[in-house]
Amino acid sequence: MFSPQGPSLRELTVQALSSVERGYDLLAPKFDYTPFRTPDSILGATTQALSARGPFTDGLDVCCGSGAGMSVLRSLCQGRTIGVDFSAGMLAQAKSAHPDATWVRADVRAMPFAPRFDLAVSFGALGHFLPEELPALFEGVHRALRPGGLFAFPIGTMPPRTAVAHWVTLGFDLTMRVRNAVWRPPFVMYYRTNPLRDVLTDLTTAGFAAESVALTELGQHGDGSPRCQLILARKPLAAAPA
């Protein structure tokens, strides 16, 4: 399916009926041949938007998957680059593609890093977290950054109701909710559970100064709104006074 090198429909079905971790372990060898891999256009636009916001020394790819985001860190960071994910299969693919980076298996809801990074990025991961899980994720990234460090990740905006993509996205989320209501273990993957406003609020609560900028080179919806926003969350240089 998708391409001759991609997974078959049967393989995708088995993955969808597995847990998130087990599903990605199964999909890992063929993941880069699916549309689920972050497109190079998004990686390039993110790199360009961050290039004037450095310099950066050490970089962290949060929920790194098969390692596509490492190209962004290697372009921007002058020091050590580390990827973290809970799928052993995905980490094996990432290590094969980028053997000179460091790869760590961990649950990012309990981030295992001390404050050492200047830049943290994440691509396509928020849909795998329920809204109540995002505060722990953002707090962990905040702890892993040095004062003044930056957490950046692109987030797709919802198409207007007049667009076919709006209803396709809604249908996908409804299908996943039905699947998780009748089948265990759950597979958490939603497109509509993390609105931009709520994400910015959770980042601010975690201690970041957060904003969003439009990645205009990635196009617009029919109503003129950007298809993709880049979230920029900066850890303050010093703690705010009580």
UniProtKB/TrEMBL annotation:
Q: Show where the Methyltransferase domain sits.
A: 60-149
Q: Entry's CDD domains?
A: AdoMet_MTases
GO BP terms: namely: methylation
* Plastid in keyword set: no
Listed A to Z, the keywords are:
Methyltransferase, Transferase
Family annotation (Pfam families): Methyltransf_25
Q: A single Gene Ontology molecular function, please?
A: methyltransferase activity
Claim: Aminoacyl-tRNA synthetase is one of the keywords in the record:
no
Entry-linked PANTHER family: METHYLTRANSFERASE, OS06G0646000 PROTEIN
Q: What name does this protein carry? A: Methyltransferase family protein
What organism does this protein naturally occur in?
Asanoa ferruginea
